[in-house]
Design a protein that fits this description.
alpha+beta; about 20% strand; elongated; about 55% helix; single chain; two-stranded antiparallel ribbon; about 425 residues
Length: about 425
Protein backbone atom coordinates (compact mmCIF):
# COMPACT_ATOMS: atom_id res chain seq x y z
CA UNK A 1 0.00 0.00 0.00
CA UNK A 2 1.39 3.41 -0.96
CA UNK A 3 1.83 6.32 1.45
CA UNK A 4 -1.02 8.19 -0.28
CA UNK A 5 -3.31 5.23 0.33
CA UNK A 6 -2.28 5.13 3.99
CA UNK A 7 -3.17 8.80 4.36
CA UNK A 8 -6.58 8.33 2.70
CA UNK A 9 -7.49 5.44 4.97
CA UNK A 10 -6.23 7.38 8.02
CA UNK A 11 -8.37 10.40 7.13
CA UNK A 12 -11.39 8.12 6.68
CA UNK A 13 -10.82 6.57 10.10
CA UNK A 14 -10.33 10.06 11.60
CA UNK A 15 -13.61 11.34 10.16
CA UNK A 16 -15.78 8.26 10.53
CA UNK A 17 -14.63 5.42 12.74
CA UNK A 18 -12.92 7.22 15.63
CA UNK A 19 -14.40 10.63 15.10
CA UNK A 20 -15.41 11.38 18.69
CA UNK A 21 -12.04 10.61 20.24
CA UNK A 22 -10.15 11.98 17.23
CA UNK A 23 -12.07 15.26 17.24
CA UNK A 24 -11.53 15.60 20.98
CA UNK A 25 -7.75 15.14 20.79
CA UNK A 26 -7.63 17.23 17.58
CA UNK A 27 -9.44 20.07 19.35
CA UNK A 28 -7.02 19.77 22.29
CA UNK A 29 -4.07 20.02 19.92
CA UNK A 30 -5.62 23.04 18.18
CA UNK A 31 -6.24 24.81 21.49
CA UNK A 32 -2.71 24.05 22.69
CA UNK A 33 -1.08 25.25 19.49
CA UNK A 34 -3.10 28.47 19.66
CA UNK A 35 -2.13 29.00 23.29
CA UNK A 36 1.56 28.34 22.65
CA UNK A 37 1.77 30.64 19.61
CA UNK A 38 -0.04 33.48 21.39
CA UNK A 39 1.94 32.98 24.63
CA UNK A 40 5.27 33.09 22.81
CA UNK A 41 4.19 36.21 20.93
CA UNK A 42 3.02 37.77 24.20
CA UNK A 43 6.37 37.01 25.82
CA UNK A 44 8.26 38.51 22.91
CA UNK A 45 6.17 41.68 23.09
CA UNK A 46 6.78 42.04 26.84
CA UNK A 47 10.50 41.43 26.39
CA UNK A 48 10.73 43.98 23.58
CA UNK A 49 8.83 46.62 25.57
CA UNK A 50 10.99 46.17 28.65
CA UNK A 51 14.25 46.17 26.70
CA UNK A 52 13.26 49.28 24.77
CA UNK A 53 12.24 51.07 27.95
CA UNK A 54 15.42 50.09 29.80
CA UNK A 55 17.69 51.21 26.96
CA UNK A 56 15.83 54.39 26.11
CA UNK A 57 14.56 55.69 29.45
CA UNK A 58 16.83 54.46 32.23
CA UNK A 59 20.02 53.49 30.46
CA UNK A 60 21.53 53.41 26.98
CA UNK A 61 23.48 50.84 24.97
CA UNK A 62 26.69 51.36 26.95
CA UNK A 63 27.30 52.96 30.36
CA UNK A 64 30.66 54.41 31.44
CA UNK A 65 31.41 54.98 35.15
CA UNK A 66 34.48 55.59 37.28
CA UNK A 67 36.89 52.69 37.65
CA UNK A 68 36.34 52.42 41.39
CA UNK A 69 33.60 53.41 43.79
CA UNK A 70 33.73 54.98 47.25
CA UNK A 71 36.54 53.59 49.40
CA UNK A 72 38.51 52.55 46.34
CA UNK A 73 36.43 49.39 45.85
CA UNK A 74 35.67 48.20 42.30
CA UNK A 75 32.17 48.90 41.06
CA UNK A 76 29.97 45.93 40.20
CA UNK A 77 27.14 46.00 37.63
CA UNK A 78 24.58 45.77 40.43
CA UNK A 79 25.98 48.97 41.99
CA UNK A 80 25.46 50.84 38.73
CA UNK A 81 22.03 49.21 38.33
CA UNK A 82 20.95 50.32 41.79
CA UNK A 83 22.19 53.81 41.09
CA UNK A 84 20.63 54.28 37.65
CA UNK A 85 17.43 52.27 38.02
CA UNK A 86 16.32 52.37 41.64
CA UNK A 87 18.27 55.38 42.92
CA UNK A 88 20.15 53.42 45.60
CA UNK A 89 23.92 53.38 46.10
CA UNK A 90 24.13 57.05 45.13
CA UNK A 91 27.07 57.56 47.47
CA UNK A 92 29.00 54.64 45.99
CA UNK A 93 29.27 56.15 42.48
CA UNK A 94 32.29 58.43 42.21
CA UNK A 95 32.83 61.18 39.66
CA UNK A 96 34.51 60.09 36.42
CA UNK A 97 38.10 61.45 36.33
CA UNK A 98 38.63 63.85 33.42
CA UNK A 99 35.08 63.20 32.18
CA UNK A 100 35.32 65.81 29.42
CA UNK A 101 38.26 64.07 27.78
CA UNK A 102 36.59 60.66 28.13
CA UNK A 103 33.49 61.97 26.44
CA UNK A 104 35.49 63.54 23.63
CA UNK A 105 37.35 60.29 22.89
CA UNK A 106 34.15 58.21 22.86
CA UNK A 107 32.29 60.75 20.71
CA UNK A 108 34.91 60.49 17.97
CA UNK A 109 34.62 56.71 17.63
CA UNK A 110 32.92 55.51 14.44
CA UNK A 111 30.82 52.98 16.37
CA UNK A 112 29.16 55.70 18.48
CA UNK A 113 26.02 57.61 17.48
CA UNK A 114 25.42 59.78 20.55
CA UNK A 115 27.00 60.50 23.92
CA UNK A 116 25.31 62.18 26.85
CA UNK A 117 25.94 62.71 30.53
CA UNK A 118 23.78 62.41 33.60
CA UNK A 119 24.28 63.57 37.14
CA UNK A 120 21.98 62.11 39.75
CA UNK A 121 21.44 62.67 43.44
CA UNK A 122 18.76 62.21 46.02
CA UNK A 123 16.95 65.24 47.32
CA UNK A 124 13.80 66.71 48.77
CA UNK A 125 11.25 68.90 47.00
CA UNK A 126 9.33 71.15 49.34
CA UNK A 127 6.62 73.78 49.26
CA UNK A 128 7.34 74.82 52.83
CA UNK A 129 4.30 72.92 54.09
CA UNK A 130 4.65 69.66 52.18
CA UNK A 131 7.64 67.78 50.87
CA UNK A 132 8.46 64.70 48.80
CA UNK A 133 11.70 62.74 48.36
CA UNK A 134 12.90 62.89 44.75
CA UNK A 135 15.59 61.43 42.49
CA UNK A 136 17.14 64.48 40.85
CA UNK A 137 18.20 63.75 37.27
CA UNK A 138 20.60 66.27 35.80
CA UNK A 139 20.04 65.97 32.05
CA UNK A 140 21.29 67.49 28.83
CA UNK A 141 17.86 68.80 27.92
CA UNK A 142 18.44 68.94 24.16
CA UNK A 143 20.29 65.61 24.00
CA UNK A 144 18.15 63.32 26.14
CA UNK A 145 16.12 60.70 24.21
CA UNK A 146 13.71 59.88 26.98
CA UNK A 147 12.38 63.44 26.93
CA UNK A 148 11.22 62.89 23.35
CA UNK A 149 10.08 59.28 23.58
CA UNK A 150 8.73 57.80 26.81
CA UNK A 151 8.31 60.93 28.92
CA UNK A 152 5.04 62.53 27.86
CA UNK A 153 4.39 66.04 29.09
CA UNK A 154 0.80 66.55 30.18
CA UNK A 155 1.35 70.18 31.10
CA UNK A 156 4.10 72.65 30.45
CA UNK A 157 6.67 72.73 27.71
CA UNK A 158 9.48 70.49 26.53
CA UNK A 159 12.20 71.37 27.09
CA UNK A 160 11.06 73.41 30.09
CA UNK A 161 12.93 76.60 30.98
CA UNK A 162 15.99 74.83 32.44
CA UNK A 163 18.17 77.93 32.30
CA UNK A 164 15.66 80.32 33.80
CA UNK A 165 16.15 81.97 37.17
CA UNK A 166 15.08 80.21 39.27
CA UNK A 167 15.69 77.10 37.11
CA UNK A 168 12.71 75.14 35.85
CA UNK A 169 12.01 71.56 36.83
CA UNK A 170 9.70 68.81 35.60
CA UNK A 171 8.15 66.26 37.96
CA UNK A 172 5.78 63.31 37.79
CA UNK A 173 2.18 64.51 37.78
CA UNK A 174 1.31 62.44 40.89
CA UNK A 175 4.11 64.16 42.79
CA UNK A 176 2.64 67.55 41.88
CA UNK A 177 -0.80 66.40 43.01
CA UNK A 178 0.54 65.27 46.39
CA UNK A 179 2.39 68.55 46.85
CA UNK A 180 -0.68 70.44 45.59
CA UNK A 181 1.34 72.60 43.22
CA UNK A 182 0.86 73.75 39.64
CA UNK A 183 2.86 75.20 36.79
CA UNK A 184 5.02 78.27 37.58
CA UNK A 185 4.81 77.66 41.31
CA UNK A 186 8.08 78.25 43.13
CA UNK A 187 9.48 75.47 45.32
CA UNK A 188 12.59 74.64 47.34
CA UNK A 189 14.82 71.81 46.11
CA UNK A 190 17.33 70.31 48.52
CA UNK A 191 20.07 67.96 47.33
CA UNK A 192 22.76 65.89 49.03
CA UNK A 193 26.26 66.81 47.87
CA UNK A 194 29.02 64.21 47.29
CA UNK A 195 30.63 65.10 50.64
CA UNK A 196 27.36 64.55 52.50
CA UNK A 197 26.20 68.14 52.99
CA UNK A 198 22.81 69.53 52.02
CA UNK A 199 22.43 72.34 49.49
CA UNK A 200 19.22 74.13 48.60
CA UNK A 201 18.00 76.19 45.66
CA UNK A 202 14.77 77.76 44.49
CA UNK A 203 13.15 76.15 41.44
CA UNK A 204 10.08 76.80 39.31
CA UNK A 205 7.70 74.05 38.25
CA UNK A 206 7.95 74.10 34.46
CA UNK A 207 6.41 70.79 33.43
CA UNK A 208 4.41 67.76 34.53
CA UNK A 209 4.99 64.40 32.89
CA UNK A 210 3.87 60.81 32.69
CA UNK A 211 6.15 57.94 31.75
CA UNK A 212 4.81 55.50 29.18
CA UNK A 213 7.15 52.72 30.27
CA UNK A 214 8.29 51.30 33.61
CA UNK A 215 7.05 54.32 35.53
CA UNK A 216 7.29 52.44 38.83
CA UNK A 217 11.04 53.25 38.60
CA UNK A 218 10.35 56.87 37.73
CA UNK A 219 7.62 57.94 40.14
CA UNK A 220 10.10 59.95 42.25
CA UNK A 221 11.97 61.44 39.29
CA UNK A 222 12.68 65.16 39.02
CA UNK A 223 14.26 66.46 35.82
CA UNK A 224 16.53 69.48 35.91
CA UNK A 225 19.21 70.80 33.59
CA UNK A 226 22.63 69.23 34.07
CA UNK A 227 24.29 72.57 34.85
CA UNK A 228 21.72 73.34 37.56
CA UNK A 229 22.21 69.94 39.21
CA UNK A 230 25.98 70.41 39.21
CA UNK A 231 25.56 73.75 40.98
CA UNK A 232 23.21 72.15 43.50
CA UNK A 233 25.73 69.35 44.13
CA UNK A 234 28.57 71.83 44.46
CA UNK A 235 30.77 70.25 41.78
CA UNK A 236 32.58 71.77 38.80
CA UNK A 237 31.06 72.30 35.36
CA UNK A 238 32.51 69.13 33.81
CA UNK A 239 31.78 66.73 36.68
CA UNK A 240 29.64 63.71 35.91
CA UNK A 241 28.97 60.29 37.39
CA UNK A 242 27.76 58.52 34.27
CA UNK A 243 28.47 58.83 30.55
CA UNK A 244 25.82 57.11 28.46
CA UNK A 245 26.55 55.96 24.92
CA UNK A 246 24.14 55.13 22.10
CA UNK A 247 25.82 52.99 19.46
CA UNK A 248 25.55 53.41 15.72
CA UNK A 249 23.09 51.26 13.81
CA UNK A 250 24.40 47.77 13.15
CA UNK A 251 26.92 47.75 16.02
CA UNK A 252 26.21 45.06 18.61
CA UNK A 253 26.10 46.15 22.23
CA UNK A 254 28.80 43.68 23.30
CA UNK A 255 31.15 44.67 20.47
CA UNK A 256 30.60 48.38 21.05
CA UNK A 257 31.29 48.08 24.78
CA UNK A 258 34.46 46.08 24.11
CA UNK A 259 35.84 48.63 21.66
CA UNK A 260 35.08 51.57 23.96
CA UNK A 261 36.66 49.77 26.91
CA UNK A 262 39.82 48.97 24.95
CA UNK A 263 40.11 52.53 23.59
CA UNK A 264 39.79 54.19 27.02
CA UNK A 265 42.02 51.73 28.87
CA UNK A 266 44.68 52.04 26.15
CA UNK A 267 44.80 55.80 26.79
CA UNK A 268 45.11 55.33 30.54
CA UNK A 269 41.64 56.31 31.78
CA UNK A 270 40.46 54.59 34.95
CA UNK A 271 36.89 53.80 33.96
CA UNK A 272 34.59 50.81 33.74
CA UNK A 273 32.36 50.13 30.74
CA UNK A 274 29.15 48.09 31.07
CA UNK A 275 26.47 47.05 28.60
CA UNK A 276 22.88 47.92 29.39
CA UNK A 277 22.12 44.22 30.01
CA UNK A 278 24.74 44.08 32.74
CA UNK A 279 23.32 46.98 34.70
CA UNK A 280 19.59 46.60 34.06
CA UNK A 281 19.22 44.20 36.98
CA UNK A 282 15.51 44.59 37.90
CA UNK A 283 14.41 44.83 34.27
CA UNK A 284 16.47 41.81 33.17
CA UNK A 285 15.07 39.85 36.11
CA UNK A 286 11.53 40.50 34.89
CA UNK A 287 12.53 39.56 31.33
CA UNK A 288 14.12 36.26 32.39
CA UNK A 289 11.14 35.23 34.51
CA UNK A 290 8.79 36.21 31.70
CA UNK A 291 10.72 34.07 29.21
CA UNK A 292 10.36 30.98 31.40
CA UNK A 293 6.56 31.05 31.36
CA UNK A 294 5.88 29.96 27.74
CA UNK A 295 8.59 27.31 27.97
CA UNK A 296 7.00 25.76 31.04
CA UNK A 297 3.54 26.00 29.53
CA UNK A 298 4.72 24.42 26.26
CA UNK A 299 6.29 21.52 28.13
CA UNK A 300 3.15 20.86 30.14
CA UNK A 301 0.87 21.04 27.09
CA UNK A 302 3.10 18.73 25.06
CA UNK A 303 3.07 16.12 27.85
CA UNK A 304 -0.71 16.33 28.26
CA UNK A 305 -1.23 16.05 24.50
CA UNK A 306 1.17 13.12 24.31
CA UNK A 307 -0.87 11.26 26.90
CA UNK A 308 -4.15 12.05 25.12
CA UNK A 309 -2.91 11.15 21.65
CA UNK A 310 -1.24 7.95 22.84
CA UNK A 311 -4.45 6.95 24.63
CA UNK A 312 -6.50 7.45 21.44
CA UNK A 313 -4.09 5.32 19.42
CA UNK A 314 -3.86 2.59 22.06
CA UNK A 315 -7.67 2.44 22.16
CA UNK A 316 -7.71 2.17 18.37
CA UNK A 317 -5.24 -0.71 18.46
CA UNK A 318 -7.24 -2.46 21.19
CA UNK A 319 -10.56 -2.11 19.38
CA UNK A 320 -9.17 -3.15 16.00
CA UNK A 321 -7.07 -6.12 17.02
CA UNK A 322 -9.02 -8.53 14.85
CA UNK A 323 -8.85 -6.09 11.94
CA UNK A 324 -5.08 -5.92 12.34
CA UNK A 325 -4.89 -9.72 12.36
CA UNK A 326 -6.98 -9.86 9.21
CA UNK A 327 -4.89 -7.40 7.19
CA UNK A 328 -1.69 -9.12 8.35
CA UNK A 329 -3.13 -12.47 7.26
CA UNK A 330 -3.91 -10.92 3.87
CA UNK A 331 -0.28 -9.94 3.36
CA UNK A 332 0.45 -6.74 5.33
CA UNK A 333 3.86 -6.91 6.96
CA UNK A 334 4.74 -5.36 10.31
CA UNK A 335 6.30 -2.29 8.71
CA UNK A 336 3.10 -1.53 6.77
CA UNK A 337 0.95 -1.95 9.89
CA UNK A 338 3.25 0.42 11.77
CA UNK A 339 3.06 2.98 8.95
CA UNK A 340 -0.74 2.63 9.00
CA UNK A 341 -1.03 3.73 12.63
CA UNK A 342 1.68 6.34 12.35
CA UNK A 343 -0.31 7.92 9.52
CA UNK A 344 -3.38 8.06 11.77
CA UNK A 345 -1.30 9.80 14.44
CA UNK A 346 0.04 12.22 11.84
CA UNK A 347 -3.44 13.00 10.47
CA UNK A 348 -4.73 13.85 13.95
CA UNK A 349 -1.64 15.95 14.72
CA UNK A 350 -1.62 17.81 11.42
CA UNK A 351 -5.36 18.55 11.53
CA UNK A 352 -5.19 19.98 15.05
CA UNK A 353 -1.98 21.86 14.28
CA UNK A 354 -3.37 23.55 11.15
CA UNK A 355 -6.52 24.68 12.92
CA UNK A 356 -4.57 25.86 15.98
CA UNK A 357 -2.05 27.71 13.82
CA UNK A 358 -4.77 29.55 11.93
CA UNK A 359 -6.50 30.52 15.18
CA UNK A 360 -3.23 31.67 16.76
CA UNK A 361 -2.22 33.75 13.75
CA UNK A 362 -5.73 35.25 13.61
CA UNK A 363 -5.61 36.28 17.28
CA UNK A 364 -2.16 37.84 16.86
CA UNK A 365 -3.27 39.66 13.71
CA UNK A 366 -6.22 41.21 15.58
CA UNK A 367 -4.04 42.06 18.59
CA UNK A 368 -1.60 43.85 16.29
CA UNK A 369 -4.37 46.14 15.11
CA UNK A 370 -6.32 46.92 18.28
CA UNK A 371 -3.92 46.02 21.09
CA UNK A 372 -4.64 44.08 24.25
CA UNK A 373 -5.57 46.25 27.27
CA UNK A 374 -3.49 45.01 30.19
CA UNK A 375 -4.68 47.28 32.99
CA UNK A 376 -2.68 49.68 35.11
CA UNK A 377 -1.01 47.14 37.42
CA UNK A 378 0.38 44.93 34.68
CA UNK A 379 1.00 47.98 32.55
CA UNK A 380 3.50 49.16 35.17
CA UNK A 381 5.49 45.98 34.57
CA UNK A 382 5.48 45.91 30.77
CA UNK A 383 5.57 49.67 30.33
CA UNK A 384 2.35 50.14 28.34
CA UNK A 385 -1.41 50.14 28.82
CA UNK A 386 -1.80 48.15 25.60
CA UNK A 387 0.17 45.21 24.30
CA UNK A 388 0.66 44.73 20.55
CA UNK A 389 1.66 41.17 19.71
CA UNK A 390 4.32 40.62 17.02
CA UNK A 391 3.66 38.01 14.34
CA UNK A 392 6.84 35.97 14.09
CA UNK A 393 7.19 33.41 11.31
CA UNK A 394 9.79 31.59 13.37
CA UNK A 395 7.38 31.30 16.30
CA UNK A 396 4.61 29.90 14.09
CA UNK A 397 6.83 27.49 12.17
CA UNK A 398 8.72 26.03 15.13
CA UNK A 399 5.52 25.51 17.12
CA UNK A 400 3.62 23.95 14.21
CA UNK A 401 6.37 21.65 12.99
CA UNK A 402 7.27 20.77 16.56
CA UNK A 403 3.73 19.56 17.20
CA UNK A 404 3.60 17.58 13.95
CA UNK A 405 6.88 15.86 14.78
CA UNK A 406 5.70 15.25 18.34
CA UNK A 407 2.53 13.54 17.07
CA UNK A 408 4.67 11.09 15.09
CA UNK A 409 6.95 10.41 18.07
CA UNK A 410 3.96 9.82 20.36
CA UNK A 411 2.44 7.44 17.81
CA UNK A 412 5.52 5.21 17.69
CA UNK A 413 4.70 3.05 20.72
CA UNK A 414 1.05 2.34 19.81
CA UNK A 415 2.07 1.69 16.19
CA UNK A 416 4.85 -0.64 17.31
CA UNK A 417 2.43 -2.55 19.51
CA UNK A 418 0.05 -2.99 16.58
CA UNK A 419 2.87 -4.11 14.28
CA UNK A 420 4.00 -6.81 16.73
CA UNK A 421 0.63 -8.49 17.13
CA UNK A 422 0.64 -12.14 16.12
CA UNK A 423 -1.92 -12.63 13.30
CA UNK A 424 -3.39 -15.89 14.66
CA UNK A 425 -3.83 -14.49 18.18
CA UNK A 426 -5.20 -11.23 16.81
CA UNK A 427 -7.87 -13.09 14.81
CA UNK A 428 -8.97 -14.92 17.97
CA UNK A 429 -9.36 -11.69 19.94
CA UNK A 430 -12.88 -10.72 20.96
Amino acid sequence: MTFTRFIRVSIKNFLLRNRHRSFLIGASIAFSITAIIVARSFTESVRSNLETAARRVLLSDVVIVAGTGSGGKPLLPRHVSDFLVTGENTGRIELIPDAGAVRSIVSEMAQVARVRERYKLWGLLSTGERSRPVQIFGLELDNEPMLGSDVRFVEGVRPWPGKSDPPGIAIWEDTAARLKVGLKDELILLGITPDGYMNATSVTLGGLFRVRSIDFFMNTALFLSLDSVRRLAGVDDSATQVIMVDLARGVSVEEGARLIREELLAKGYDVQVFTWMEVAGPVMGIIKVNQLIPGIMTGILFVVLAIGLANVLYMAVQERTREIGTIMALGFNRRQVMHYFLCESLVVGVSGTLIGTLLGVGIIFIAQRVGIPVGKSFGLVIGSDYLYLPLSLGNVMTTSFGMMLWSIVVGLLPARRAAHLVPVEALRAT
